[in-house]
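subagent[fold] <- orchestrator: predict structure for attached chain, return tokens only, no commentary.
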Amino acid sequence: NVLKHIINTDRAPKAIGPYSQAIQNGKLLFISGQLPIDIKTGELIKNDIASATKKSLENMKAIIEEAGAKMTDIVKTTIFLKDINDFGIVNETYQSFFQSEPPARSCVEVSRLPKDADIEIEAIAYYGD
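subagent[fold] -> orchestrator:
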């Protein structure tokens, strides 16, 4: 039997709705979309897409590490952007987190994100025994 295990860490922003930061199911880890919220200040990073991308990925990394996985275990990400014109800048920052063998990815422009964020990133990782 595969058991569902909820992953939570104080090193990433708390969920702002009825969802978990991540769910582990067997060797799969499903990481909820991460906004660029600085957990030290509680502030959302706005109008600086490079810093916002970095913060979303740092928040994701904290959750992944809490689950006992690594960023290299990520097999799929989805990036939601407020402005697709930021695609190039997002790629530059994103690449610094996935320097070799990057995961599969989708990137879409959306009309609005929670808290009017500029970016949100979610992921699926495969890891374990």
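orchestrator: received. Logging for downstream: The beta strands are 4-7, 22-25, 28-34, 74-81, 104-109, 119-126. The chain has two helices and six strands.
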